[in-house]
Design brief:
The chain has one domain: Jelly Rolls. It is α+β, with helices and mostly antiparallel strands and about 120 residues long. The chain contains 3 helices and 10 strands, in the order H-E-E-E-E-E-E-E-E-H-E-E-H. Keywords: Calmodulin-binding, cGMP, cGMP-binding, Ion channel, Ion transport, Ligand-gated ion channel, Nucleotide-binding, Transport. This is Cyclic nucleotide-binding domain-containing protein.
Length: about 120
Amino acid sequence: VEEFGNLDGSSLEKLCDVVKPAVFTERSYIIQEENPIDQMLFVLQGKLWTYTSRRVTELSSNSGNLNNHLEGGDFSGEELIAWAKAGHNSSNLPISTKTIQALTKVEAFVLMAYDLKQVLLNIDN
C-alpha cells in the first residue's frame, strides 16, 4: 500500500500488531456493494472476484493491471486510509461501490477500520 510507505518503522510495527489472519471459504462474500467498508484485505493466497450489481467492474489492482480479480499480493479497502486520516470527525465508514467474493479458498490478512484509524491517529499525536 503506497500510503504505508511514508510510515516510520515504529508505526509499521503498530499496524502489524493489529493485522489479523483470516480464511474465507469458496463463494463467501467479503465485502458487499453499498455496505460499509470495515476492513482492508491483503490477499496471500486464493482468488477473489470483484463486481457491481450493474456489471463486472474493471478495477485497478495494486499491481497496476486492470482486472476484476484479486489474488496473492493484491489488496482492497484503500478507501479506509483517507477515512482514517480524517481523524475523530469521521465516524461513518466509506460505502463500498463493489462486491468482493471468494472464488476459491482465500487466505489473507485483515486490517479492521477502527484499528487502522487508531494507529494513524496515534502517529499524528
